[in-house]
Amino acid sequence: MAVRPDPGLKAIALIEGEKVKGKLYFEQFRSNQAVKITGEVTGLSHGEHGMHVHEFGDVTSGCSSAGAHFNPHNKNHGGIDSEERHVGDLGNIVADPNGVAKVHMEDKGMSLYGNFSILGRCLVIHADRDDLGVNKMDEKSRTSGNSGSRVGCGVIGLAQPEGWS
To answer: Which InterPro entries does the record cross-reference, listed alphabetically (predicted)?
Structure first.
């Protein structure tokens, strides 16, 4: 009997908001590899929007019940490539003039595996551009990147390993 290779872990977040909708896919083949994030978000205003994984997968009161950015290591806010950042910091997505943001990124700072997994947490899209925590004298910059209100969110759920790539 042939041994089947480990397909890794796959997850999906269905983004819902008043106007914002989307579907984002997460894929990680091994725990020591980057998480690949792909998909599309629609209904946004033209320009940049902060995107973060928040600590809870609770959407009982919409996006407001998702808690703060997922930050198990108690770091200051940053961008996806920052040395100091929250695990949930993904930087910005960019919506075109039609309000569509195509997402394609890889993140080595988060995981679908282990104690600090993002599975079961909430992916949140914000109204404004994330300043990536550059203003260390500003409390909102250090904690949330001044990215504004939450316009869409969805729980990151474990997906079936077959059926998409």
So the answer is: SOD-like_Cu/Zn_dom_sf, SOD_Cu/Zn_/chaperone, SOD_Cu/Zn_BS, SOD_Cu_Zn_dom
Domains of the chain: 10-158 (2.60.40.200)
Residue with tokens 């397909």: 7
CA distance 43 to 100: 7
Secondary structure (DSSP) of 20-66 = -EEEEEEEESSTTSPEEEEEEEESPPSEEEEEEEES----EEEEGGG
- Residues labelled catalytic: 52, 54, 69, 77, 86, 89, 126, 150
pLDDT single digits (tens) 35-90? 999 999 999 999 999 999 999 999 999 999 999 999 999 999 999 999 999 999 99
State the Cα–Cα distance between residues 130 and 85, nearest whole angstrom.
13
Q: Which residue has the tokens 């600590």?
A: 55
